[in-house]
Amino acid sequence: MTAITIGVVDDHPLFREGVTRSLSEISNFVVVGEGASSDDAAMIASNNRPDVMLLDVSMPGGGLSAIGEVLALSPSTKILMLTVSEEVDTLLGALQRGAMGYVLKGVGSRGLAEAIRTILSGSRYISPTMSAKVMESSLQGGSSEKNSLTPREREVMDLVAQGLSNKHIGLRLGLQEKTVKHHMTQILSKLGASNRTEAALQWRERR
């Protein structure tokens, strides 16, 4: 049976060690890298290219910011957020940035294994509690509007509207240029704009 390689990134050592130990006890799961920050996530993606990367939302550098960086370095890696955050905006932001799953930290090892296998099959996995919250938010006309930009995408657009290039936006926000390009692709799609100039004009009108 082919091994499933996994990277685990969380800034709480005891929790990270517990997750790593639990996953290592599951047949054909192999943890190939551990880290505590978005920089560590990027390094693991670059050096190990794991099948799955578990990312915490609240860690140095930000878990959401790490998604684009990991995917730019290892496009085939599936990202699963493992977090205590039950905010719908955080969930939607993670999915919009490219995460395939969102699991709350109360999950057991069997549930986590199920989530990993689900996203590896190409399907999304969202904790039942969060699925219910998203549905409720949608019925209330809340923050699940598909065309809304994530907080990071709004930051990028603010700088695009100021005339900054992808390279300079990356320097300002501490992101790689490839990550900024990934954000711009998502932004243009959401705004229905054909290029960054058109997007900037739309953005200025909205401000």
TrEMBL record:
Ranges of residues in domain HTH luxR-type: 142-207
Which UniProt keywords are present, listed alphabetically?
DNA-binding, Phosphoprotein
Cite the Pfam families for this sequence: GerE, Response_reg
Cross-referenced InterPro entries: CheY-like_superfamily, NreC/VraR/RcsB-like_REC, Sig_transdc_resp-reg_C-effctor, Sig_transdc_resp-reg_receiver, Tscrpt_reg_LuxR_C, WalR-like
| Membrane spanning residue stretches | none
Q: What are the residue boundaries of the Response regulatory domain, all occurrences included?
A: 5-120
Q: Name one GO biological process term.
A: regulation of DNA-templated transcription
Q: Which residues carry this modification: 4-aspartylphosphate?
A: 56
Output one GO MF annotation. DNA binding
Q: Extract the PANTHER family matched here.
A: TRANSCRIPTIONAL REGULATORY PROTEIN DESR, TWO-COMPONENT RESPONSE REGULATOR
- The name under which this protein is listed is DNA-binding response regulator
Q: Which organism is it from?
A: Rhizobium vallis
The upper taxonomy is: Bacteria, Pseudomonadati, Pseudomonadota, Alphaproteobacteria, Hyphomicrobiales
